[in-house]
């Protein structure tokens, strides 16, 4: 074999290996309803500190919260659809970095937390109608002297790795040509600790999650949110795999029915305007016009 033919054969083999590797990396299509019926199990992706959407109270064994309650209602709808009396709910703890890969590869069936429905993410996963609309804002300590976005110049700002807040902060920095140091936490609680211990001067996150972190912190009076500052409004949606239309239809119908029946408002009141575990803290976060509109006109539109 000539050196030219050898080189060509080697190149062809390498290209073939690359194509096989690419094909293997593609997420497999999964008939979720069929698998749930066969195994009797549904796996829900949860968080450990996304108060009051999905979190595990101290001493608790399973997550609780607004998004978790919605997903349990979806499980009831799946039982009715499949005609089975019981489905075991299994939880897998997710974070901002692994939630989409673990959804795509079939590790979890529903992501029941605070994932923003974005146009970019819609290329990878599917979303149910939005069950919340958050405003991305800034939390600071009361004695920080920070009252506006312009005051962040030269400061260290905390975000959560893999969150949309990271990109919003960077977009703001470029637009304003402002020097802002970034520091990231692995989850919302970890990033809040950066603010609490003084490693960060501010924390960019969804307003409702900031409210939960502040309300349940040891010294809630030490913090405040810049409520007049909203970098963007973001809709939360229950995430599921793409290209599974039967499963998606059941989830969509269940969430929409919760909104039309008024049950979604009752769930909202339970978690946002009443004392919640473990410390019976009331977040006092009344329903905003954006959330009310999301319930009135269910939508899967992403940002």
What overall form do the CA principal axes indicate?
globular
How many E strands? 13
Q: Regions with pLDDT < 50 over 5+ consecutive residues?
A: 1-27
Q: What's the SSE pattern?
A: HHEEEHEHEEEEHEHEHEEEHHH
Distance from N terminus to C terminus (CA atoms, Å) equals 57 Å
Please indicate the count of domains: 2
CATH superfamily of the largest domain: Periplasmic binding protein-like II
Secondary structure tally, helices: 10
**Which range does the strand content fall in?**
15-25%
CATH architecture of the largest domain: 3-Layer(aba) Sandwich
Mean pLDDT: 90
The biggest sheet amounts to: 6 strands, mixed
Q: How is the CATH topology of the largest domain named? A: D-Maltodextrin-Binding Protein, domain 2
Radius of gyration: 22 Å
Overview of this structure, please?
With 303 residues, the chain is α/β, with parallel strands linked by helices. It has two domains: 160 residues, D-Maltodextrin-Binding Protein, domain 2; 100 residues, Periplasmic binding protein-like II (D-Maltodextrin-Binding Protein, domain 2), CATH 3.40.190.10. Helix content is 40%, strand content 19%. The chain has ten helices and 13 strands. The strands form four sheets. Strands 7, 8, 9, 10, 11 and 12 form a six-stranded mixed beta sheet that branches. A three-stranded parallel beta sheet has the order 4-1-5. It has a two-stranded antiparallel sheet with strand order 2-3. A hairpin with a 3-residue loop joins strand 2 and strand 3. Helix 3 packs across helix 8. The chain is globular.
